[in-house]
Structures are given as structure tokens and as C-alpha cells.
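Researcher: We're teaching a course module on how sequence relates to structure. For the next exercise, students receive a sequence and then see the predicted structure as C-alpha cells, so they can try to spot secondary structure elements on their own. Here is the exercise chain.
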Amino acid sequence: MSISVLLNKNAEWLKGEGPHADYVMSTRIRLARNVSGYPFPRKSSIEEKKQIIVFTEKVIASSSWVKDGSLLINMHEIDEIDRQFLMERHLISPEMVLLGEGSAVAISREEMISIMINEEDHMRIQVLKSGFLLDDVWETANEIDDDFDKGLPYAFSGRFGYLTSCPTNVGTGIRVSVMMHLPGLVYSKQINKILHAAMKLGLAVRGLYGEGSEALGNLFQISNQSSLGVSEEDIIKNIKKIIDQIIMHEKNARMFFLNSNLKQVEDKVGRAFGILKNARIISSKESIGLFSTLRMGIDLGIIRDVPRSTINQLMIITQPAHLQRYYSKILDPNERDIKRANLIREKLENIKEAEF
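Model: And here is the predicted structure for the students to work with:
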């Protein structure tokens, strides 16, 4: 499987399926792990990093999750656009885009699993699925972690737990992230109150691409901030409880708009559909905001016969690196805005005008 193949398929987390998929775009669990006896990547030599890649590659090859079509990519063998492409698909972190020789990523066929090698830690084991599936995602991540634990000596302290490059990951090394689509709370101006409450309860709130990124398209990543002194199960239980409450608030906000301002909601959705289907120039920021409105219209039943997965996919393939991979050429910002509009019209061409 090559990067080109990824462009033409829908990643598992973009399917728009699973529990509460109308509120939760995806669930992710990431485990930070390091190999005992080796410096953390930022202090490692190229040769030491290469040894870590060899070690992890051997474990990956014998792991239960590896199937035909899995892919191992060395970061120094791909250009900047391909690195950005992998980041846009949430297969590597923004930090890993800047890394070169000595760093790699292993990706499962359905893009549900990726193993970042020599990012901030020797390994970042990531499992990403569509919908609100914390227990299911944790079960898969735990199985993969067991495979690595059998094949590699982990850096572990009886007092502190798993040793990691960043102190906030020490302990369980787990980061649980839920990508939520919250247009109802944004439009009703309740979003700040809800997110501040989540932060007071020990959760972090980030944008579409994690730390430091903007919350585009009414998409928010909500995750635990620390992993020391509490079990993985308790972290998951706590996040599940808080996400359930946020879902309830978002559902109530949407229902209020639907029941008291139906025509305004229909107008907002209809305008978004019209712009997306007819625009000749459109920026990434504008398009993802309009996709968010369209997705809400689908979730509320205002727009019928358009799969949620279509909008999820469009949110990603219209990002800068995806556009350049799609058209197989380097594009300046203005060219990207034109090509993005062309691609959106192409993908929406066979979708009938919204019927309200």
C-alpha cells in the first residue's frame, strides 16, 4: 500500500458510523512508550533511532493487527507534502511533519492503527475509530501494547509507571481524545461555558489537529491532561462520563434550534449547500465551516440521502496537502482555493438540491 492508495480510500475514522456519530466524529487512544536503555528520541543519535526502528519493525511484523497492505514509511523518504498529507489524515502528529531520518510510521490498511516511531517518544501507539467507542478502541490499543511489551523491554518505573519524554505522559502514558462536532453549542453561544467546565474537570480542549491548532468546523478534540496516579480504566471512565454530558448539551442545543428556529436553521444549511455547490474560489477555513453546517443539516434530517461519510471525507481531502496529492502538482494558496472549489463541485455534482 502506498500513500497514493490512501488518497483514494475512506479512512475508518471518517466513516461517520458508530455510537453517537452525529456528535462524535472519532475516538482515539494513544499510548506513549519507550525502550529501556535508549535515550529519548530528542537525545538519540541517528544510529540509535535506526535501531529502535528495527526493533519495532520486528514486533510489528509479528503482531496480530498486521495484515496484507500495511505500510511502513520512513519520514526522510517522503517529501513535505506527503508528510502534511499524513498529518491531515491524523496518522502522524504535526510535530512529526518536521522530522527526518530516524523517524518512521507504520499504518494499518484501514488506517485504524498507526505507530509513530521516534517522534517525541520511541513509540506512539495510536488507535482511531469512527464514533464514540472508547472501550473498543482501548481494547485494541491494549492488545497492540501487549504485543510490544512481549517483544521490547519498556522503560518503566515501579514508582512512576511508563517513563516518557514529556512529564505529562508519565504514568500510564495514555492520551484519550474524542473529536466532537458541536455546532449547536457554538451557534447558541454556550460553547465556552461547556468547554471551560470540561477543563476545570482536568480535560484539555484542542482544535482539529491537536495542540496549538484552531477549532475549525466546530470540531473540538477533548482529551485527558495527565496520566500519572490513575489507571487507564479510570481515565476512560472519567472522559466517558464528561463526553456523555457534552453530548446531552449539544443534543439539547440542536433540538432547541430545530423546534424554535427551524426556518433559520434550514436557511443556514441551504446557504452552506448552495455556496459549496457553486463556489469557484473557496479557502480551507471557509469550506470546513460550511461542511460543518452541512453535516449538522444531515444529522438533523434537514438534508436527506447524503451520507455523513461524504462530508467527513470532503473535510479532509480539501485540505492543502490532499489537494496537491489529488491534482499531482504543487499549488500556491490561490491555486489551491480554485482547485478546492473545483473538487467540491465535482464531489457534490450528483447530489440533488437540498429538499426541506
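Model: If you want an answer key for the exercise: DSSP finds twelve helices and ten strands in the chain. The mean pLDDT is 90.
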